[in-house]
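Researcher: Good morning. I'm working through a list of sequences from a screen, and I'd like to move beyond sequence-only analysis. For each chain I'm collecting a predicted structure so we can compare shapes side by side. This is the next one on the list. No need for commentary yet; just the structure.
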Amino acid sequence: MNDDDLNELIDAFTAECEEFLQSMETNLLAMEAAGLKERQAAVKEMFRAAHSIKGAGSMLGFQNVSAAAHTLEDCFVILRDRTDLSALEPTTVSVLLQGVDALKKITIESVQHSDVTTPDQTENLEAIAQIFAQFQAKYGKSEQPPVPAASPSPAPDTLKLIFEQQVPALFNRLETELSQASEADLAKSVTALNQVYYQLSGLAGMLQLPDFGKVAAALSALIESPDLTLQRLQSEGWAIAQNLQTARQQILEGRAIDIPEISPTPPLSPSPPLPLSPSPTPPEISPSPTLPVANPQRPTIRVDLERLTELVNLVGELVINRTNLELQESELRGEVKRIRRNIVDLSQFGGQLREEYDRLSFAEWRGGNGNSGLGKLAAAETEFPVIANGKSSPVHAHFDILEMDRYTEFHSTAAEVIETAQAISHSATKLDTLAMKFERSTDQLRRITEQLRSRVMQLRVVSFSRAVDHLPRALREMCLTYDKDVNLLLVGRDTKIDESLLDALRDPLIHLVRNAFDHGIEMPEVRQASGKPASGQIEIEARHQGGQTIITVADDGKGIDPEIIRRKVVTKGLATEEQAQEFSIAELYDFLFWPGFSTTEGVSDLSGRGVGLDVVRTNLRAVRGTVKVDSRLGKGTSFIIKLPLLLSITDALMVKTDHNKIAVPLDAVEEILHIKASEVHLAGNQPMLWWREEFIRLVRMQDLLEYSVVGPDAPSPDPLTQDEIPVLVLASTEGMLAVAVERLIGQQEIVVKPLPPPLSKPRGVLGTTILGDGRVVNILDVDDLVGQPVVNSSIAAVSGKVEEIPPSSSQSPQILVVDDSYTIRQLLSLTLTRARYRVVQAKDGVDALEKLQNGLDCSLAIVDIEMPRMDGFELLRSIRSTERFAKIPVAMLTSRSGEKHRQMAMELGANQYFTKPYSEAQLLQAIPKLIHHSRI
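Model: Good morning. Structure tokens for this chain:
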């Protein structure tokens, strides 16, 4: 094994250890809120993780890693066998988390310093040993003492199996390297022998055979000696091999290892290597294939990031050219159809020519007037001379016109036209066949391209969980330090992001969580005084939308007071008082990202230095990301991060507006409507559209965009003045918006290409795409457009039937969702949030009742029936019997569809009864009516 192979194994070991350590940390954090069975399963999982790290470290010769993992493994054994997991103490979890941290540091330092024991490693090893001693002192020592490594009793079956089947393969490799060593390749042989030593030493450590490890240590001492020669390597190496063989035999017989020391004196002259056994023949090695002791990782290669990026870009170009090919294929099919129509017309024309000739020749003759008919025929023959048949004309004289056909040039011309039409038809049939083959090939190319795109993208993407899995631990430490109770909710952990974005995201997410914890979440007593639950919540959500990754960090804290920012801006001399009064809310929020700007008066370990949010914006700019703030005073704050995807192939709706084609990401289109002008209402000068029981803004797309391309033809018609107005209802984190366009073109798969540096991203434009005909089309950034004021406020008169309506309230209703199923709660919450409702979740009736008693103001409660602690019927009875809550409308959402359950719910006072699986449209349609009924 060369250095590259060893480095690959070490890289695989490092990645594997990171996964195991993260798994241990995640399980420890989850145990605090888990039940007994979940805790038992978590302890088993952590034990397996520590055991795997121990074995892998031993195999690669990282003895410090193996020893530390073994000690931590013993701690998990004590936790599994000698503790009451139902009464798990938080201090136990904290101590084990410290042990995981120490093991992590030992692993990193061992890889960096080739397992050389440093003072830091010694300190971390002692820390893990102290944790084990604390566990033994608290929970008692094991009743059975550890078995000595070199026991005089016969070897266990497992030990015999390893030394009978796996160890001979290592000895065989040792012999091969010694026999093939040469002066020219001495360094290469030393590297290979060093790897053999690592495997033998790791095997001794894993099986707790220190005496066998001492025999193997002689090999390490030999190859590390500064004056090593080929003669000495072979002479002493064969002696070490002989001793290893003897030690193996003694272990198999159950005897203690007793091997004499090897004399370092080299032989006087080169001689053949000594045999490994007393017999004159070489030792017999089992010829059967054996499993190697190497790490069982699948073969991997390392690829330069720039080459991978080039490959991803080439896949995008392939998709664009495939789209061009599909366009050409469609045009070819159209041309073939046009040719076939023309061939039919040509065939009909040729047939008409022949019929016309026959009519001229025989119509009057059939009428009985022979002279007249012959006269007309003679005239035709004069204009079109008769073409002689193959026989002599005297013979023709014996036949009249009915007995022998006579042909003119007119007839031959018609026949040639028909034959040409038939030949063209035959060629068109071949073209049609080729077009069908072309279509099948294009379809096959589409499937292959999709598979290639999927595989290539998987090379560069990882789960979002790798960027946030360390946050629960950090938040827990802050909660213990600052006496706050804050829950962290991670949504979209499996969302795929580019691996190159991980480093750029870690620091911003840490700072945003710290900012939410310190500035946003109030102390428990303050929260309770304001009618909030004592426990705060920070939610981090990741999702893909319109060719970009959107990450939202939201808290339910006190929000940001813009007036405090305004005063701070004036105090710091960043603007005069008059200027500060003119700043909009968005402009004030932008000051939060300035270096050194902080709204906190004092400086603490968490805040006050004005560094955190500055780091957020700086790191995101490095990867062409953006961050935006949305806050409601007393309700909470959201930081919305947008990151461009390296390459996104998505579906888009192509529309036409103001002479331009625009691509609208299809996942942002909530609904496509065709409305009449009479359906448009006005709130002041703002057109509004009544959609799903609420009014939403209606704007023209050209009013949202800040660029204009003058077309060669007449001005584009105003969409709002058309008889039928095509309208797109767009959904984003900012809310809903109805956009009127000139014309809908159709759906198309596009490649999203972000604008390259140094071009800055225009507002409202996500990027560009290239169509099959080579034209470049802009892609809308829906999140930028929804919520922004209309730039061009000139609204044309729509209709005389416009109805004036009052502006709608910006305060959206709050809905309490009560269900013991986490999946149902999340699914329902996403549905309601997308419909612009605020949602509070409760896991059962007791949890819901506590939230209501703590001052939760909700406009509707959606309640399941079958739940632990308090079911839906009991909760409904409690709500109706309490005067404060009696007017809250309650909708039951349950899998029980029987009439008995429905009747019981209605008797207890339920306002509506839905059964699972529920219709999202039906539910959203009923909610405004329920809320409106409660307000009457």
